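Progress note, sequence design subtask.
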């Protein structure tokens, strides 16, 4: 894990992005205080598959029914 200051990150952003894309963790700090972690968006390289969870998620028949007045009041929408 590499920790760099904001100034060094601005100067070497391309190199830091390459490291993150290769799986290395890069922390950007303000002074000595870590503030962000630079990570690649698609770490696994796996493509998303529509319908992959079909049959694994269930819900009741009333899941999309309108909320009752009491439920709306409890949520602060009255």
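Output:
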């Amino acid at each position: 894990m590499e920790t760099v200051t904001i100034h060094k990150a601005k100067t070497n952003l391309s190199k830091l992005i390459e490291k993150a894309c290769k799986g290395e963790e890069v922390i950007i700090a303000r002074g000595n205080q870590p503030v962000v972690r630079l990570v690649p968006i698609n770490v696994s390289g796996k493509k998303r598959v529509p319908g992959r969870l079909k049959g694994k998620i269930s819900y009741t028949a009333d899941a999309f029914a309108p909320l009752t007045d009491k439920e709306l009041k409890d949520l602060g929408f009255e």
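The chain has a mean pLDDT of 90. Work on this subtask will continue into the next period as scheduled.
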